[in-house]
C-alpha cells in the first residue's frame, strides 16, 4: 500500500490520488458508511465477492468496480488467494470527470485481457516506487488517464467497449476520410459499406462518437474545409465548399458557422492575421 502525501497544492488540482495499494491476499472489508473518496477495486488474480447498493457481484480477473464516496460496501474472498489492486482519488472536479465520462459506478466493469487496463496495476507499482512526485501532478495525470482508459476499454453488462465500437467503425472512418467530397454520400451508402442497416449504423455512431453518421460527415467536411481555408489562400469560399462536398455555398457557410461560431471567411482572416 502507498499512502500519498497530499499537499495543499495537490488539493487544488481537479483530481488527485489519495491512496493506492496491492493486496496479494485480499482480506474481508466491511465499510457500513462507505469510503470518503472515490474507490476503485479490481481483481488481479482469483475471485472475490463484492456487495454494494443492494447488489452482490463477483469480481474475477480483468474486472473491477468503481464506488462513489460514502457508498456502504463489503467484500470477501471467494478463492485463496484473491489478489487485488485499488486506488482511491478525490478532487473538486472528480465527480464532474466521472459523470462526464459516463463511467458506471457500483457495478462490474470488465475489459479484454490484452487491453492497457490489464497491466495498469503493474505499471502503477513501478511509477509509485520510482517517482517521488507521483502523489502530485504526475499522480493527478495518472488517475485521469486511468479514468479515460476505463471509459475507452471498460465493458458493462457485456456491451462492447468504446474502443471495440471504434474498431468496428474504423474501415468506415477511412472510407469517409477518402470520400467526404462526394456530395451524394449519404446514410444508405455508409450503411452499405459497413454492411449493417441504417438503424444499426446510427446506433454504432452514436455510441462511438455521440453523433449520427450524417453529423459526423458534416464535422469531417468542416474539418477539411478549415485546412483548405488556412493552406489554400487562392481558393474561394465557394470553391472550398464544393471541394468538401457542399453543392450549395449558403449551406456550407451556415454549417461552418454553426460548428465554429464564425463564417469561413472570418476564420481564414483570423489565421492569416496570426502568421
UniProtKB/TrEMBL annotation:
Residues 170-270 form the HTH araC/xylS-type domain. It comes from the Bacteria. Keywords: DNA-binding, Transcription, Transcription regulation. Gene3D superfamilies: Homeodomain-like, Regulatory protein AraC. The keyword Transcription regulation applies. It holds the Pfam family AraC_binding. This is Helix-turn-helix domain-containing protein. It comes from Paenibacillus glycinis.
